[in-house]
Amino acid sequence: MSIDLSKMPKLGFGLMRLPEKDGEVDLERVKAMADDYMTAGLNYFDTAYVYHGGKSECAAKAAIVERYPRDSFYLATKLPAWSIHCAEDRDRIFEEQLERAGVDYFDFYLLHSLEDGSNYETYEKYDCFKWAMEKKAQGRIVHFGFSFHGTPELLEKVLDDHPEVEFVQIQLNYLDWENPVVQSGRLYEILAERKIPIIVMEPVKGGTLASLPSGLEEGLKAARPGASIASWALRFVASLPGVMTILSGMSTEEQMKDNIGTFTNFEPLTDEEQALVKGVREAMLDKPLIGCTSCRYCCDGCPMSINIPDIFRAVNTMRLYPGDWRAKNFYGQATSQGGKASDCIGCGQCEGVCPQHLSIISLLQEAAEKLDSDK
Questions:
Q1: SS percent in the chain: helix, strand, coil, step 5
Q2: Residue pLDDT, tens place only, 129-163
Q3: Category of 41 on φ-ψ map: left (φ > 0), alpha (ψ -120 to 50) or beta
Q4: Are strands 20-21 and 198-201 parallel, antiparallel or unpaired?
Q5: Measured at the alpha carbon of residue 198, what is the angle toward residues 121 and 235, in degrees to the nearest 5?
Q6: Domains contained in the chain, CATH given
Q7: What is the DSSP letter of 73?
Q8: Which of 322, 313, 296, 364 is CA-nearest to residue 208?
Q9: E-assigned strands of the chain?
């Protein structure tokens, strides 16, 4: 059993930011979105053990697995290093994932968030690469790879040590192309040189590239009237050779419709459009923004229940639009059902799991100083 990776759908449905209702995944809306996605001839669904507090794989079962023939879609999920404390945990988690998703095998299986330090060390300590290949030999995994948030040097080491890896998932968007922390461009070059298929995550950088600061959208709108700002970010990534699938964490029916439209009769960026995007990137990088992608890994273990990504959204709004009322409004929403920025006790749990390696504690201190007093 094998899949032709050169013929994968360009747009993947990421199940990390699903619509919610009363604190739970809104399954009826997810079903409708999945139907629109499948009707468009697209069929790659990406979930993980930890998404939506462990409920994303269950949502995949209800919205996709129980409603479509198993051979009509691809399902990807991931093994989390931070949940592995002994060798037996690998099988325990894997079996739980199969049960949650209601499948006998996964088309794509990844080691989740491989990066310098503890995560990579955990995967090596418990021989997770060999373990995954054993699952592949048993037919319970079709293709094996990993998602990556580390340095270019680590990526090259892992690929040298583990030639069995069939694909790699990286964060890639036009804003992070030269980001000194993320280094999207260099990671892409390494994989392209080795001809390893690339799955892209965060193509719109957690929504940051769906709506640009004042003055930066005009050129894009003039070049392509009627096209969404988000479509430019997706087209930038999809224009790169070697990109297998681009994951979009779609939360609304409108986002689904817009993204499907972008990939229907897809048009790569022209040289002139590449220049426009480069200009937007240079202008945005002149403003120091918090590089949060709203993955929400930091939230699950926060003892003070602080909605950290939502607070950072407020801080970024404040930085981009000084004096704008929206910053305080966003902060009020972020703290209405969770802790304030000043409630942070500095335990560091959040920084230990942040794929972007943000200095979350000090950033929350900034938020507290500028927003708590005015709340």
A1: 50, 15, 35
A2: 999 999 999 999 999 999 999 899 999 999 999 99
A3: left
A4: unpaired
A5: 135
A6: 5-282 (3.20.20.100), 297-372 (no CATH)
A7: -
A8: 313
A9: 11-14, 20-21, 24-25, 44-46, 74-80, 106-114, 141-148, 167-171, 198-201, 243-248
**What does the pLDDT look like over 268-327, one tens digit per residue?**
999 999 999 999 998 887 778 898 988 999 998 899 999 999 999 889 878 876 666 668
Structure-token pair, residue 351: 């920084």
Mean pLDDT by 10 residues, the chain (375 residues): 90 96 94 98 97 96 98 98 96 98 98 89 97 98 96 96 98 88 92 98 89 89 96 98 96 96 96 96 83 90 94 86 73 90 95 92 93 69
Quick check: pTM over 0.90? Answer: no
DSSP 230-292: HHHHHHHHHTSTTEEEEEE---SHHHHHHHHHHHTT--PPPHHHHHHHHHHHHHHTTS-----
Q: Distances from the Cα of 309 to the Cαs of 22, 161, 291, in angstroms?
A: 20, 35, 10
